[in-house]
Fold each of these.
Amino acid sequence: MNQEIGFTDTLSHLLPKEQDGMPVQTPEAAKTAIQYCLYARKSSEDDERQALSIDSQIKEMALQAQKEGLLVTDIRKESHSAKATGQRPVLNQLIADVRSGLFQGILTWAPDRLSRNAGDLGSIVDLMDSGYLREIHTHGQIFTANPNDKFMLMILCSQAKLENDNRGINVKRGQKTKCEMGFRPNFAPLGYLNDYYSGKGMKKVFVDKGRAPIIKQIFEKVAYEGCSGRAIYDWLKNETNFRSRNGNVLTLSVVYKMLNNPYYAGFFTYNGKWYKGSYEPIISRELFDAVQKKMEVTPKSKPGTRIFDFTKILRCGHCGSGITAQEKIKHSGARYIYYHCTKARDPKCAQAYVREEIIIDELIGLLEQTPIDTIKAGTSLGEKLEIFRQFSALQSENSESDSDQLALSKFLGHIFKEGSREEKRDLISCIKGQLYLNERQIIVK
C-alpha cells in the first residue's frame, strides 16, 4: 500500500542489493509477524533545522530495517510541524491504519518524529495499550507495550514538547527584548532596509536613501497641501518612479497603510505595547500627527441633515421598513433625539417614536449578554475594554465573573455616552442578527 498523502516509496528501491557481501534479507525471511510502516517527518520551522532530511531518515531507517530483518510494507513521509495535536494528515492516517490492523509496528528515526505534543502521544500510547501497535523501532531503541518501554517513550516525547514550550517562551522574550532595544522584530516597512549581515542580536534598520525622501514628501503633501490618499496614489503612479520592493506600483490601500504607520515617525506597536524606535525617523512626530488629523474622515451629508448613531442598523418591527431619526429642541433648550419608522413599506405603520436613551439602554442590555472575550476579539476596542476589566478587578471584592460583568457594563456605558459613532457601531456588530425596533424594545432575529 502506497499512501499518497505525503511521499511514499517501496523499501526495495532504497536498499542495496547486497551489504557486506551478503544478500539482502527478503520479506519471506524477515520477521513477518509484525508489518512495519516507515514514517519520516521534518518540519520547515527553525526548531528542526538540525533534524535529518526526510530522504536521509528514510535511507538510514531502510538500512536498519534490512539489518534487523524488519518487514516494512509501506513508507510514508510528510513535512509538517508536530507541535499541534491532530494536524498531520499522514500521521492521522497511519494511526487509523494501525488501528485497522494494516500495520503492527512503526519504524521512525526518533520518538520526536512521531510526537511533540501530548495529544498525538496519547493516541500512540493508546494503540500500544490496546494491542494494535506492538513495536516502535527508532534509531538505537525499541519500544514495546512493556510498561517501562512506554514510560520511556512518553518521557522522550514529553521532553520534545518541553523543548518546544521553552523555545516559544524564549522567542517571545527575545522579541520583547528587541522591542525594548528599539527594533521591531518583523520586516521593516517600505522606506527602510533590514540588516542581513550583522550577527544575531546586532542587526539594525537603515533608512532607504532612495525611497525616504519621497515618503517624506507624501506626508508633507497630505499635511500641508491637503492631498487625499487617492491624490497621493496618482502622484506616485504618474509623476514619480516610486515602486515597491518587487518593482510594482503601490496600491491605494498600501498608500493609506503608509500614511497611518507611526514607524516612519520613530515609534511602533508590538503585541499591544508602544516602543520608541532606535532607528532614524523619516518624518517628525508633529508631521505624523498632522497627517492623522487630515486623514480623519467626516461623513458627508446634505446641507441641513445630520447623521445619527443608530440609523441604518435598525428595522421596524411592525412593517420591516428602515428606522430614521430626528432631533427635537424643546422650549427650554433641551435637545432630544427620537427614532421612528420611515414607513417606506407601510405608510400607515403605527410604530411609535422612541427616545435615543431607550435605544441605548436596549443595546447595552443585549451586549451585556455577550461574553467579554467575544467583544474584545470581535472589535477594535479590545485594549480599552481590558483596561476597564483590570481596573474593575482591582476595585471589586466580588468574584472574577462579577468583576468582568461590572467592567463590561461600565465600558458599554462609557462608549455609548462618550465614544464615537464608529466605536458604537463596532460594538453593535457583536450582536449577531438583524435588529428590529418593536415599540420600545429591540428584538434580534
Note: The first strand starts at residue 18 and ends at 19.
Amino acid sequence: MKKSRLASIQLPDHPHLWGLLLITAIAYGRLLTFPSLHLACPENDTWNLSIRWSVLHALRDGHIPLWNPLSAFGIPWLATWQTETFYPVTLLFNWLGLSFWNYSGVLHLLIFSLGIYLFVRNQGVKPFGAFFSASLALLNGCAVNHLGSNSSMDTMAWLPWVFLGAQETLENKRWGQWKLGLALTLQIFAGYPQIIFYTLLALGAYAFFVYRSVTRLILPLAAVTFLTIGQWLPSLEYFFFQAVRLPAIANNPDFVLPLNNLLTFITSNALAQKGLPDYVVSPTYFYFNFYSGLIPIGILLTGLLGFKKWKPGTAFWFFSLALSLLWTFGFFSYLLQLLHLPHSVFLEPAKAWVLVNFIELVLIGLLWESLFAKADTWKWGLLAAAVLNLIIPIWMHPVEKNLIPPNSALEQTAQKVKDQLGSGRALVLIDQKNSGDIYTPMPDPELNAHFKYFAPNTNLFANIPLANFYGSTCPSWGSMNAELYFKYAFPYTNGTLLDLLGVDLLYLNQSSMPAPFVNMGTLYGWTLWRNPNSLGRAFIYKGDVSTANRKDVFSSFASGQSNPQDKLYMEREIFTDAPQHAVPPNDPDNHYDVPANASGYLVVTQNAMPGWKAWVDGKPTNMYLADWIFQCVPIPQGTQSADLRYEPSSFRLGLFMSLMTLSGLLAAMTAFLWQRPKP
C-alpha cells in the first residue's frame, strides 16, 4: 500500500490538542457565549469594529473597498492595512456579520498557539514542553490585548506557521515550500505591514544563522510576492509615495516602548496609576503589554545559568530575544540618532512586540527541554500555576457591549446629525481632554458601548462623512494640511477654508461661535453648529484661475483673503490623464449633475489622490488639482453630467499579476499532486 502524501503532516498529540481547547474555553468562555461583548478597549469602538463594518458593507454591496469617502475627504481604503479585504476569514464576517468578532479573535489565538506547539516540537522539544509554550501563547498579554485588533491579531497568528514552513523548506521536506508559501500568503493578506516586515527580517536571520543558507527560501518567497501583489502594491504606493507618516505619539516620534514596559513581563497591570487599569492610563502601551507571568520568566532566568549546555538553536533564539528587546525599547534608535543616521518612521520599533512574543515562547519551550527533560508529575502543578496566573487577569478584565448596528443610541444620535447635514460633511473638533475622554473610557458596569459622540471613525457605522481623520498615516494630498488647520487655527478665524472643505456641520464642545455659524442644538453636552456658507461635496467655479504654492493657498483661505467662489488655485499641469476606456462607470456616489448652461470647472471636495479618473458627458477627460487638495474637471458649455471613478493602476496591475500567479500555482499544485512518490 502506498504511503499517503499527507502522512508527512505532523498533527499535535490529541491530549495536548484537547488541553489547548479546554484552556481556551475556560479563559474566553464568556466571550464565546456572549458574542455581543468584547474586552473593553477604546480602539475597538472608535477604530477596529468600525473599519470591519465599513469593509463588510462594501463587500456585501458587491465591490472591493478601494476608497473610503467618509474619512478625511476620502482615503485609499484597500491600501490601508486594517481592511483585510482579501483575507479568507473576512468571508466569515461577510456571512455572519460582526457577531463573528470574538470567534475570529479566539480562532486566531488557537491558530497561533497550535503553530507554536508544532514549531517547538520540530525543534526537538518533547510534547509537554511544547504544550507549555502553546498554553502561554493562548493567554499572555501580547495575545490577549490584541484580541479585538483584527489585523494585528490575524497577522501574528501565522508567524509560527511561517517559521514552521521555512524550517521544513530548509530541511528539504516534501511539502515545506507549499506550507511556507501558504502561511506567508495568509499573513500578508492579514495585512499589518510592520509585523510582516519583522517576520521576514527574523526569517532571514533564522535561515542564515541556523541553516547557513537562504537559497531554498527564494522560490516560495518569490511566488508569494507575486501572488499577494494585488494587496501590497497599492499599500506600498500609498504608504511610501502618497502618504505622510505622523508620529504615533507626539513626544515619542520613533514610537519605541518606555523601559517601564519591561515590568509588564511580570505584572499584568504594570502601567496602572492610582488604581486605574493600564488600558485607561496608557491605552497605546496597553496594546504592548508583554505579561507572561513569573513562572515563564523564572524558566528564562534559570535557563541562562546553563548557557554552556545550549544547543546552537537555543543560542540563536536567546540572542534574537535580546536584540529584538533592545530594538523594541529604542536602544538602536538612540544609537542612530547619536550617529545622525536616518531612521524610518515606518518601522516603529514598538511594533516588534509580536516578534518578542514569538521568540520568548519558542525559547521557553527550548529551555524547558534542557531544564526539566526528566520532570515528573510535579510539572503539571507548575503548568497549572502558570496558566492560572494568566487566566486571572483575563477574567478580571472588564467587558463591554459591541457597537454593532442596529444600536438604538447610535442610530438616534446619527439621525439627529444627518437631519442637519447637507451635501457636505461634519467636523468633530476635540481638544486633548476631550480626546482622552473618547480614547480612554472607564469600564462601565452597564456594559454600554462607549462611542459617546462621533469621533473618527465611529462615523463609519452611521455613514456620516467626517472631515476628521483618525490615524497616523494621512494622505499627503491635502488631508494633512486640513488636519493641522483644524487643530491650530479653528474656530477663532474669519477664514473661508471650512466653506471650501465642504463642512456643513460642526459638532463641538463649544458653547459660543462667531458668525456665520448657527446653533442647531446640543447632543450629549456638545453643540451642533451649521455652516451656511459650505460649498458641499461639489460646486461649479466660474472665473479665472490662479496658481500658488500649497502654503500660500491654505493661508489665503484660512485668513479670509480668498473666497473659494471667487478664487480658484489650479495647477496648470494635468493631475491625472484621461482614462483609456470611453464608457463611464455606473457609480451613483460619484455622479454629478451639472446645472443647465453652467460652464467653468467642477470642483469635487474630495482628495485628488492619483488613481482618480473622470468622464464628462461620457467622454474621458483630464483631471486637475484644485487648491492643492481637491479634484477639478473642466466643464464646457452645455455639459449635463460628470462621472468620477477611483481605479489606481497599482491595483489593476497588482490584481492581474496576482490572478496570473494563482493560475500558475494551481497548475503547479496539480502537477505536484499527480507526481508519483519516490521509493
Note: Residues 538-646 form one domain.
Amino acid sequence: MSDPPTRIPVAGERPYDVLVGTDLLPKLPALLGGDVAKVAVLHPRSLRGSAAAVHDCLSARGLTVHSLELPDGEEAKTAAVAASCWSQLGQLGLTRSDAVVGVGGGATTDLAGFVAATWLRGVRLVLLPTTLLGMVDAAVGGKTAVNTAEGKNLVGAFHPPAGVLCDLAALDTLPRSEYVSGLAEVVKAGFIADPGVLDLIEVDLDGAVRPDGPYTRELVERSVRVKAAVVGGDLRETGGAGDSLGREVLNYGHTLGHAIERLEGYRWRHGAAVSVGLVFAAALARLAGRLDTATAERHAELLAALGLPVSYPAGAWRGLVEVMRLDKKARGDRLRFVVLDGLACPGILDAPEPALLSAAYAEVSG
C-alpha cells in the first residue's frame, strides 16, 4: 500500500489543497464536486494513456467525459490553441457547473487553466501535473497564460484550481533532461525561502537528479509549501504585507529566463532558461553590493552540478534587453529584478544601470 498523500493547503480568496503522493487518481472525482455532469480533459498528444485513465476513472462515476488533445510543450500555449478549445467546449455544451481537468506538464496546465478561466468567465478546474516543473511551479498558484510573438505569458488570467494532484509516479517516465529542468524551480525555492532544499540536493547530487532519489518527495513538498505560502497571501501579484515582496519573489531568475526562452523560440526548456537567469540574478546582486560572493557562486556551482546550463552567448545581450523590457515586472522603461540580499532574503533591484546589467551578463556569457 502507498503512503497517504501529503495535503498542502493554499490559502486565499478560493482556498484549495495540493496533494502530493502516489495513486492519487481516485481523489479526482471528489475535487470536481457533486454538481458536475461534464468534464473536458485537456492533455498533450504524448499523454493519451494518462488521459484515458482519467477518462475511465470519471466515466465510472457516471460523468460525461470528453478528451481535448493539445500539442506537446509550449506549442500548446497559443491563442489559436485556446480558441480551438473554446470551440470544442461550445460544441460539447460545457456549462458553468461543469469542469476542466488539465493533465500534463507546465505548458498544458497553463493552457488548461487559461481555457477554464475564460470559458463562461470561469469554470471549475483541477490540475494533474505530470512533470516536476508542473508539480512545484506551474500547477500551483492560479496563474494561467498563453504566449504571444512578443513574449512569454503576456496574456493570461488568475484562476485558482479546485485542487492539484501531484502523483509522484508520473515522474518515473520523464526523460532525464525534463526532470532535471524542473529542478531549477526547486533550487529557486531553496534560494528565496527554504535553504534546507539546497542542503538536501547537495548532500546527494546523484539522487537529486532521479525521480527515485531518497529526497524526491520531500523536495517536491518543500517546494510546493514555499509557493503555497507566497501565493496564498498574494494571488494577483499586488504586493505582500509589510516587508514581504509578495508573489513577485517567485520571479527570481525569470526576467532573463523568459527572455532566453523567447529568443530561443521556446526550444529551450523553461528550467534551463531559468537556471541561467538565476546565475545572472545572483551576479547582479553581488556586483550591486547586496549579496555575498559565496552565496552568489553557490548558484552556478549547484546548478551546473545538476547538469543545468549556467551560461548564454555573449552576442545575445542586446536582444535579451529588448525582450526584458516587455517583462511583466517592468515599470515603464525601468527594468526590475528580484535579487537576494542574503540566503532566503529576497529584495528588488529597480532600474539598475546599464553598465551593471552588462557586467552581470558578462559573468554568464560564454
Note: The longest strand covers residues 151-158.
Amino acid sequence: MTFIPEDFDASSWENIEPYVDDLIQRNLSCSSCLEKLISDSSNLAEHISETGALLYIGMTCDTENETKKNDFLNFVENVRPKLSKFSDKLNRRIAEHPSVGDLPDRYDLMIRGIKSDIDIFREENIPLGVEQTKLVTKAQGITGGMTVEFEGEERTFPEMKAFLESNNRSVREKAWKSMVSRWMNDSEELSEIFDELIKIRHEIAKNAGFDSYTNYMFKAMHRFDYTVEDCLTFHNSIEKVCMPIVREINEKRRSSFNLEILSPWDVNEKSGSGPDIEGKNPLRPFDNVGEMVQKLSELFHKMSRDLGNKFDKLVEMDTLDLETRKGKAPGGYQYYLEKSRVPFIFMNAAGLQGDLETMIHESGHAFHSLYCGHLDLIDERNYPIEFAEVASMSMELLTQDEWKIFYDNDDEVNRAILSHLEGVVFLLPWIATIDAFQHWIYANPNHTREERTEYWLSLRDRFGSKMDWKDNEDFRELSWQQQGHLFGVPFYYIEYGIAQLGALQLWQTHRKSPEKALKDYENAMKLGNTKILPELFAAAELKLGFDEKHVDSLINEVKTAMAEVR
C-alpha cells in the first residue's frame, strides 16, 4: 500500500478511494499476504476513524454551529455509505480466502466478528443507516439547545441540577418544573424522531433476514457471550435484590423530610441523588474545571504513578472539553483518536459530586484506551463495550478512598461515598428499566404511542420509586426521552449493568488489597479486544454472571460499605 501521509484528509471519499482500490485489488497468494492486507486496512481505518471522531466531537461540542453539523453530516452521507460497501468487500476477501485458516490465533476473534458482519450486511441498509444518523443528530441538537430562565439567568440543564440538591423544597420544585416545562416543549418532536427511528431499525432488521431488531443488534454488536435470556435474568435479579434497598432508602428520605410521599424533585429516580436528608449543605467538590483537573491529577498520582502519569498526559495533550455551556450536547463520553492514540473526554461539569464521578468514569475509559494503545491493529484495541464500562465504573469505586482531596472534612467525604454507593443501587434498576424497554419496543415495532406509554409506566412501577406525580403525569409518560442511548445507541445500556457487577467485584478486591486490584485492572485492560468477554473478566479475576445469587453477594457488600460511612 502507498504510504499514507500524517496529514491525510479522510473527510473526502476521493482521497480515500485510491487506498481502498489497492486493498480490494491486491493479489493475495498466502496467509502472510493476508496479514499484510489486514495490517494495511487497519492503518487506513485509523485515519478514517479519527477523522469521523473529530467531526463528531466538533458537532457535539457546538450543536448550534451549522458548519460543524454539516461537516459531520457530509461525512455521514458521503463517506460512511461507501465505506460500508468497501468494508463488506474487504471482509469477504479475508473470510473467504483459502489461507484464512492458516492465520495465527491472534486473528481468531477478528475473523469471528468479520463473519458475523458479513452475515448481516445488506447494501439496502446503507441509506437507512444514514437516515438514522441524521435523525439522531437532530435529536442531539434539540436536547443540546435546551436551557431555562431561572433566578434571572439563562442556564443549561447540567447547571440546573445544582438547584435540585437545594435544601429548600420550593426551590427544588420550581427548578424541576422549569426543566420539565422546557423539555415538554420539544417532547412531541422527540417522539416523532423516535417513531421514525423504530421504523428504520425494524426495516434494517427485516432486510438482513431477522424477525426483530433485537436479534439483529445482538449479532451486530457481537454479543457472542450472553443472550437475550441472560438480559431477562439480569432484570429479574435486579428487581429482587435492589428494589427492596431502593424502597428502604426512599422511605428513610421521606421520613426525614416529614412527607406523606416523595415528589420527583425530592430524589432523582436514576441516580438516587437529591438534597441531604439531614439538611446539610449540598456537596460541592470543586469550584471550577481547572480545580477539578488539578485535584484529579493529585488523586490519581496518590493511587499510582502510572495512573497519575496517564491522567497528566490527557491534560498535556489538551484533549478535554469539560465545562457545560449552551449548545453543547448533553452527557459525557470518551472518544479514542485511533491514529494519534489519544483519548478525548467530553462532559458537562457544573461543580457537582455527580460531575466528579462522571469525570472519573470517563478517565477510566481513557486509561483503558491508553493501556491497550500498544496493540497493533485497530480491531485489537476495539474492546467490547461490556468491558469498557468495567474500566470506567470500577474507577469510580476504586477512587473513593482518595475523595478527601476534594473535601474539607471526613463527614463530607463519607456523604459523597454514601451518595455514590446509593447511586449504584439506584442505577441498576434504571439500567434494567431501559434495557427491558428496548426489548419490548423492538419486539413490538408496530406499537402505538399509547401502548408504549403503558409499557413504560409498567416498568416504572416495577423498577421505579413510589412518588406523587400529580399534575406531572405527562412528563412521567415521556421521561424515557431523557435517556439519550435510546435515540443514539440502541441496545447500548445493559453493558452498564454487566460492567457494574464486574466493577463491584474489582472494588471487593480493592477493599482487601488496593495494590492487587490496580494490578488486576491493568492486566485486563491491556488485553483490549484480544480475548473473549469471559476471559477479559477472568483476567481481572472477575465472574461474568447475571443470576440473583451473584447479584445479591455484591449488593450485600455495598450495604455493608454504606453502613460503614453512615
Note: The first strand starts at residue 147 and ends at 150.
